[in-house]
Fold this sequence. Notes:
Elements: E1 2-3, E2 6-10, E3 13-14, E4 20-21, E5 24-31, E6 41-44, E7 57-58, E8 71-72, E9 77-78, E10 83-87, E11 102-103, E12 108-109, H1 119-132, E13 138-144, H2 146-157, E14 162-168, H3 176-191, H4 207-221, H5 224-230, H6 250-263, H7 268-280, H8 290-294, E15 300-306, H9 314-326, E16 331-336, H10 344-347, H11 350-367
Parallel strand pairs: 1-7, 6-10, 6-13, 8-9, 13-14, 14-15, 15-16
Antiparallel strand pairs: 2-5, 3-4, 5-10, 11-12
Amino acid sequence: MIVETQSVQFNSITLDSGAVIAPVDVAFETYGVLNAGKSNAVLIVHAFTGDAHAAGVGKEDGKPGWWDNMIGPGKAFDTNRYFVLCINVLGGCRGTTGPSSINPETGAPYAMSFPMITIGDMVRLQKMVVDHLGISRLLAVAGGSMGGMQVLEWAVRYPDCVAAAFPIATTARHSAQQIAFNEVGRQAIMADPDWNNGNYYGFKPPARGLSVARMVGHITYMSDDSMKEKFGRRFRNKGAAAFTFDDEFEVESYLRYRGNQFVDRFDANSYLYITKAMDVFDLAQGYPSLAQALEQAHSRFLVISFTSDWLYPSDQSLEIVSALRSRNRDVAYCELSSNYGHDAFLVEVGEQTDLIRGFLARVYKEAA
């Protein structure tokens, strides 16, 4: 199916910090048909570098959506039955207001004058879009990685608006190691002289720093086994070392390619703001414990993790499950076997599809 990104503008949004962004533009895409009772809506929330183009073939670039293997007719999120919605997050650079957007007060890009944002702010803006579409209760909210953080925030912040929650390969808060990886990426960007304190719009962007940040991040998305299988210690030329600092190994070439490719589609300042929002996120903030935070949720939960995911390991999902069970909340948990590391939630389609399709169908039947 050919899909086109839509946009809506709101007069303003007040952030958790108390700062106000006015106006605020939001990019989103929809798939399937909203039924008369508006009871079949599913919100897909994207991961860190994702965007609103989750499924179908983009009208402008002809590329498939980042979760096209999961969204569409007969797929896990069956668009013959459900109305699926995906929204680009606040602070992004793919159609929703972020640091690269024009500040109406100055006529120049916000750059580092853009206010700090939180996962809660992202969810608040999503709620504004859902309200704009006239949807009072979502059948489900689903997402992996940073998307899973948004799922948890939705369930706690708007408990009466979410029937089912699917947090996948995620956490309720970052560990010191997870924050550390993000900080290395941020420092790589800010150490690039072309970053110019964020004021690079109209000039040469900090491509080298952003590329290195992406390379570091991409290592965390894969597992040791998947890297062994994909690259091993293979050399690019003639099977032997040339003893230079060129990209001799296949893995070096791959990481440089991914880093350079990323520079063409993502804004460095958005990288800074969004990673900081992820690091600051703590679902239990303002509550005595994670269990008491999740006590606010009324949703049915399906929590999914993957055996080889060392960025968001299964013990972080189990912490969420344990907290939900301690408050007698309805939760199912599945740890799926995979060698793909954190990327598994994007590529391991089979078992995920069976789990989500069956779970969602039961929730839909009960809600009807």
